[in-house]
Amino acid sequence: MYKRILVPLEHTDYDDAVVAHVRLLALHCGGSSVVLIHVADGWAARNQHQLVLRESDEMKRDRAYIEARADELASAGIAVECVLAGGDPGTEIAEAAERENCDLVAMSTHGHTGVQDLLLGSVANQVRHRTTVPVLMVRGTSRRARTP
User: What's the CATH number where 44 sits?
Assistant: First the structure.
């Protein structure tokens, strides 16, 4: 069914739900490959290429994080690649879906409603408006909300 799945990671607890879901989906689809992407949006990340800057500490932590999440999927026998991007998350994710030849974007959502999305914005909403690739949204929760 799906051959290549793009999974944007926030580097938060909300990633757990989408990683678990994609793990099962990739295995069910008979060996889908997975591309994990994190879009660093600090000043250095947004300007790294134009100003030829070195990776910031934030970007180094982000790279280590997505590589650790990739190891989790690889240990289940899933082919996985990592992309660390910088800039506007919605734009970068939509462009990566096309560039990486993905046939599904699977991302976690926070479950904000109306006013919260207007005030806080929604990367998931931006992505679904900017790409022609199907978008699967998996509701995530913080670990704090999961512990009694």
Answer: 3.40.50.620
Range of the domain at 125: 4-146
User: Is residue 25 within 8 Å of 138, Cβ to Cβ?
Assistant: no
CB 131 within 8 A of CB 97: yes
User: What pTM was computed for the model?
Assistant: 0.83
Give the chain's domain count.
1
Greatest Cα-to-Cα distance within the chain, rounded to the nearest angstrom: 47
Can you give the pLDDT at residue 129? 85
CA-nearest of 105, 12, 15, 106 to 61 is: 12
DSSP annotation of 111: -
- What's the number of CA atoms in the CB half-sphere (13 Å) around residue 67? 6
- Tens of pLDDT along 95-123? 999 999 999 999 988 655 555 444 444 78
Q: How far apart are CA 80 and CA 104, in angstroms?
A: 14
